[in-house]
Structure formats: structure tokens, C-alpha cells
Amino acid sequence: MKHYTRDNFKLTHSVGFLLNKARNLMLMEMDLALKDLDITGQQMGILLSLMRGNATTPFELSKLLGIDTGLMTRMLDKLEGKGLLGRERSVEDRRVVNLLLTAKGREVADRIPDIAPEVLNARLGKFSKAEFDEFRRLLGKFLEG
């Protein structure tokens, strides 16, 4: 089904515009909440993914988090510069770079679950349980394409 036509398309009412605005709002709020940890909302995703073993290489992180490889490299450089992670060449395949959290990186990542849920809960506070479940379901369906 086609939901948009030339005649009914209004930028500020489009799903793309609203999703982008919601994303920017969430990142701004998350960045503010994570300020004391000296990381951003996007960097949070990297640290948590590494801590939980969801990804171990820049490519895996890019794919998981939906971040292009150029931006991922710059973000990893910043995190490495802050002493939160290190890079190590794979022994099996020298082309592969494995990422490892440092002790400081693990400490920071361990504090994120005390902060991030509060930011999300504040934004989702007006949602009922059923609305929250439906919202997640619909976003999942949207992402499936």
C-alpha cells in the first residue's frame, strides 16, 4: 500500500521526519545524561555492545548499530583516546581488528544501565504498557522493511 503521494506528502508529517526528530531528541537527552561519564549516546551503544559481547570488531559494531564505517572509525578513535577501549589485530586473520574494553571502559559501561533506562523511561512515561509494546512492535515491523 502506498501511504504517501505527491499531493499528500508533507515533510514535517512524514514518518522519516518524525523518526529522525525522535532520534535526535533521544540522543540529545542521552548525551546530557551521560555527560558525567564523558561519553555520548552513540558511544554508549559501542561500549555496551562490547561489554555484552554483541560485537567484537568495528565491522560488527557498524552493522549492529547502523553506523557507517567512517563514522565508526572516528568514534572508536575518540573512545580509544579516552582510554576506554583498545584495538588488537586478530592472530588468525591480520586484517581483522578486535576491540577490547579497558578497565576504565568496563567501569564506564557498567554505569550506563543506571543512567540510560531513566532517560528512556522519562520519554516513555506517558505510554501505557500496551502502547509501549505496540510501539516496539511497530518499530520492529518498520525496520523489517
What this model shows, in words?
The protein is mostly helical and 145 residues long. It has one domain (35-144): Arc Repressor Mutant, subunit A. Helix content is 61%, strand content 7%. The protein contains 6 helices and 2 strands; from the N terminus they run H-H-H-H-E-E-H-H. Strands 1-2 form a two-stranded antiparallel sheet.
According to CATH, the fold-level topology is Arc Repressor Mutant, subunit A
* Tally of strands: 2
CATH architecture: Orthogonal Bundle
* CATH class (first level) name: Mainly Alpha
Pick out the low-confidence regions: none
Global outline: globular
CATH superfamily: Winged helix-like DNA-binding domain superfamily/Winged helix DNA-binding domain
Main beta-sheet annotation: 2 strands, antiparallel
Question: Could you spell the SSE succession in H and E letters?
Answer: HHHHEEHH
Proportion of strand residues: 5-15%
Helix segment tally:
6
Please give the order of strands in the largest beta sheet: 1-2
Distance between the termini: 13 Å
The total tally of domains equals 1
Structural class by secondary-structure content: mainly alpha
What gyration radius follows from the Cα positions, in whole Å?
A: 18 Å
Helical percent range?
55-70%
Q: Indicate the mean pLDDT.
A: 96
Q: How do you describe this structure in short?
A:
About 60% of the residues lie in helices and about 5% in strands.
How are the elements arranged and paired?
Elements: H1 15-33, H2 41-51, H3 58-65, H4 69-81, E1 85-89, E2 97-101, H5 103-123, H6 129-144
Antiparallel strand pairs: 1-2
